[in-house]
C-alpha cells in the first residue's frame, strides 16, 4: 500500500506532463489532417478522392503500433531520424487523421442539401458556405464520435512508452522495474488511465448538453 501511495502522484504527473500534452497535440494536428482528407474524399476529382481513400484504408488497415515503429525505427533506415516525441506525435496524428476523416465526412454529409442551396441563393461561395454554414452544423454532429476518438487516443498514448517517450505508462514501468512490483504498478497505471477517461467522458457529456441547447427539437 505504501508503494501504491508513493507512486500515485509520480504516475499521475507523468500523465499530466506527458500523456495529456501528447494526446492534445496529436489530436489537434490529426483533426486538421482529417478535415483536409474528408474534403478530399468528398471531391468529385477521382484522383484526389482516391488518394484520400487510400490513406484512410492504410491507416485503418494497419495497427497503430506498426505505424509508430515504422516512423521511429523504420525511417532511420532511409536516413530520416526523428526523436521519440515528434515520432509519437506524427504517428498518432496520422492515425487520428485516418479515423476522424470518415467521422467528419459523415457529419458534413448529414447536413441537408437545402443548407447549401439556401447559402448559394444569397450569394455565398462554396468555400464560404462550407466555412460559415456547413462546418458549424457538422461540428455539432461530430462531437460525440470525435470525443470518443480522443479518449481512445489518451489510452493509445501508452504505446509511446515503447519508443521511450516519458508519459504515464513509462513512469509506471520505471517504478515497477526499480521496485519489482509489476502487478501493483501496472494495475495502478490502469486505474489512473480509467480516472482520466472518466474525467474526459464527463467533459464530453457536458459539452454535448451545451451544444444541444442550440438545437431545435
TrEMBL record:
Compartments where found: Cell membrane
Primary localization: membrane
Transmembrane segments: 20-42, 54-75, 183-203
Topology in the lipid bilayer: Multi-pass membrane protein
Top-rank taxon: Bacteria
Recorded GO MF terms: L-cystine transmembrane transporter activity
Segments forming a coiled coil: none
GO cellular component: ATP-binding cassette (ABC) transporter complex
All residue ranges annotated as the ABC transmembrane type-1 domain in the record: 16-204
Keywords assigned by UniProt, alphabetized: Amino-acid transport, Cell membrane, Membrane, Transmembrane, Transmembrane helix, Transport
Family from the record: Belongs to the binding-protein-dependent transport system permease family.
Name of protein: ABC transporter permease subunit
Source taxonomy: Bacteria, Bacillati, Actinomycetota, Actinomycetes, Micrococcales
Amino acid at each position: 500500500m505504501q508503494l501504491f501511495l508513493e507512486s500515485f502522484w509520480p504516475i499521475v504527473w507523468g500523465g499530466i506532463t506527458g500523456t495529456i500534452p501528447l494526446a492534445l497535440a496529436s489530436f489537434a494536428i490529426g483533426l486538421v489532417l482529417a478535415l483536409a482528407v474528408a474534403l478530399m474524399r468528398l471531391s468529385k476529382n477521382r484522383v484526389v478522392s482516391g488518394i484520400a481513400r487510400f490513406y484512410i484504408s492504410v491507416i485503418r488497415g494497419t495497427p497503430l503500433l506498426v505505424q509508430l515503429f515504422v516512423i521511429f525505427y523504420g525511417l532511420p533506415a532511409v536516413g530520416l531520424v526523428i526523436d521519440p516525441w515528434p515520432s509519437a506525435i506524427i504517428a498518432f496524428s496520422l492515425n487520428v487523421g485516418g479515423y476522424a476523416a470518415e467521422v467528419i465526412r459523415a457529419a458534413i454529409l448529414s447536413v441537408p442539401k437545402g443548407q447549401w442551396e439556401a447559402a448559394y441563393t444569397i450569394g455565398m461561395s462554396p468555400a464560404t458556405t462550407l466555412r460559415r454554414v456547413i462546418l458549424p452544423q457538422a461540428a455539432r454532429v461530430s462531437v460525440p464520435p470525435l470525443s470518443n476518438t480522443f479518449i481512445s487516443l489518451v489510452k493509445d498514448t501508452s504505446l509511446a512508452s515503447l519508443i521511450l517517450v516519458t508519459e504515464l505508462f513509462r513512469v509506471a514501468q520505471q517504478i515497477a522495474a526499480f521496485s519489482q512490483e509489476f502487478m501493483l504498478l501496472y494495475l495502478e497505471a490502469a486505474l489512473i488511465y480509467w480516472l482520466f477517461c472518466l474525467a474526459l467522458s464527463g467533459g464530453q457529456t457536458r459539452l454535448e448538453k451545451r451544444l444541444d441547447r442550440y438545437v431545435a427539437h
